[in-house]
UniProtKB/TrEMBL annotation:
Organism this protein belongs to: Cupriavidus agavae
Matching Gene3D superfamilies: 2.20.25.10, 3.30.300.20
InterPro entries: KH_dom-like_a/b, OsmC/Ohr_fam, OsmC/Ohrsf
NCBIfam families named among the record's database cross-references: PRK10738.1
Domain of life: Bacteria
The protein's name in its UniProt record: Putative redox protein
One Pfam match: OsmC
Amino acid sequence: MECKVTWSGPEGMSFIAQTGSGHLVAMDGAPDGGGNNLAPRPMEMVLLGTGGCTAYDVVLILKRGRQDVRGCSVKLQAERADADPKVFTKINFHFTVTGKGLDPAKVERAIELSHEKYCSASIMLAKTAEITHTSEIVEG
C-alpha cells in the first residue's frame, strides 16, 4: 500500500493525497494554523479512516454470520492530548446497525472482533487512546 501527499503551494496549508488505488483526497489546516479550512484536517482523516475500517469489518462479519444487516454507521468522538504530539487519548465509537431481526449478541461480537482482531486502524490507535464503544440496533 502506498500514497503520495503533495503540498498545494505557499498560499496556505492545503495538501492533495493520491492513494495507491488512484483516488484523490484533499486536506487542509485550520485558519489559525495557516490553512484555509477548505478540506478535512489530517487527523480528522485518521479518524475517518478508522471509522471506515471498523464499519467495513462489522458489516462483513454480520453478513458472514447470516444477519440481515441493511445499514451501519459509526460516529466517532475523540479527545486529543493537550501537548505535542497531540495523539488521540480517548475515542468512543457509537455504532448504529440497521437490519431485520438482528441478534444483539452477534452485533456486539462483530464490534468486538473488529476492535480486537481485524481493524488495523483502531488497534493502532489503541496504543495511545482509550477505546470504548456503544451501539444501538434499529429494526428496518
